[in-house]
Amino acid sequence: MSVALVTGAAGGLGAAIAARLVEEHAVLLTDIDSGRLAETAAKLAADGARIAHAVCDVSDHSSVRAAFSLAEEQLGEVTALANVAGVGGVLTSFTELTVRQWDRTFAINTRGTFLTCQELLRRRAGRPGAIVNIASIGARLGMETIADYGASKAAVLEMTHAVARAGAPTGLRANAVMPGLIWTDMWRSATERMVANDPAAAGATPEQLFAGFVDRMVPMKRPQTPADIAETVGFLLSDKAANITGQTIAVDGGAVMS
Ligand SMILES: NC(=O)c1ccc[n+]([C@@H]2O[C@H](COP(=O)([O-])OP(=O)(O)OC[C@H]3O[C@@H](n4cnc5c(N)ncnc54)[C@H](O)[C@@H]3O)[C@@H](O)[C@H]2O)c1
Fold first, then answer.
1. Ligand 1 and 10: CB distance under 6 A
2. Residues 30, 5: contact at Cβ < 8 Å?
3. Chain centre distance of CA 183
4. Whether residues 64 and 15 fall in one domain
5. pLDDT value of position 15
């Protein structure tokens, strides 16, 4: 059985992706949130999945290396990687965005993806494998209040191309998925902050604000689900996608068309 490592596995999308991947892989679930990670892992283990879990801060090189080593000890050599860990944008005007905020977003969303991709390529050393990097439609929309987030995810897209080129001759594939709008903690906390800080949002509930974004941004007028994203990641990490590399697939109800 192949072994997959999932970052951000305690989050809304990460937990769904891990639950999908256990159908075909042994899975190491990793996240920085130890409590929710243990809960997610316990649920999957109760269903009989072959899994392990480890706290891993993707922005920290030694933490990433330790997670790969733990996967190898407990499950076997990692052959598949889903980079899901991430933080949302700061929600401020471009002129107010601070260097500290910019650097934090990039440290997690971009450096984190770089470190795990590099670790997998190094360990596979010329052998096949598969990577899916979770980007965002925010990488393509030029949204002023999340310039840090959009730029960090656009960097992930181009990095995915470089990883795909590096791995292609030996069958290591890398693709990116751009999720649309999914009601997870990321959107919950963003809309809560809008309600608290943005006079234009005052009086609305976070759920109403989210529904408004879906209405304005998604041609199909429906939010996406964690399962929508998990299914695409599962496909791209499987042998069914053996001839697909260097691609970006939007799962977004048509928000970004290519
Ligand atoms: N929810 C959406 O609508 C949406 C849309 C597009 C892209 N995404 C992307 O999907 C991914 C998952 O987001 P989500 O919606 O599940 O949000 P979420 O907040 O539920 O999950 C994010 C997870 O990442 C973890 N994390 C944060 N910093 C970390 C670090 N330094 N190291 C390891 N883990 C860390 C968090 O603990 C959390 O469990 C993110 O990369 C996000 O940018 C989400």
1. yes
2. yes
3. 14
4. yes
5. 98
Q: What confidence tens digit (pLDDT) does each residue in 208-218 have?
A: 999 999 999 99
Q: Which atom of ligand 1 is nearest to the CA of 58?
A: 32
Does one domain contain both 116 and 59? Answer: yes
- In 3D space, the residue among 5, 27, 20, 162 whose CA is nearest the CA of residue 81 turns out to be 5
Bridge partner residues of 251 (DSSP):
179
Strand (E) positions, 32-128? 51-55, 78-83
What angle do helix axes 12-21 and 226-236 make, rounded to 10 degrees? 50
Same domain, residue pair 83 and 202? no
Asked whether 187 lines ligand 1 (CB < 6 A), one says yes
Domain total in the chain: 2
For ligand 1, is residue 87 a contact (CB within 6 Å)? yes
Catalytic status, residue 255: no
Give the span between the Cα atoms of 68 and 194, in whole angstroms: 38
**What is the reported pLDDT for 1?**
78
The whole domain housing 194 covers 183-223
Determine the distance separating the centroid of ligand 1 and the alpha carbon of 50, expressed in angstroms: 23
Q: CB-based contacts of 90: which residues, under 8 Å, 6+ apart?
A: 97, 101, 105, 145, 146, 148, 149
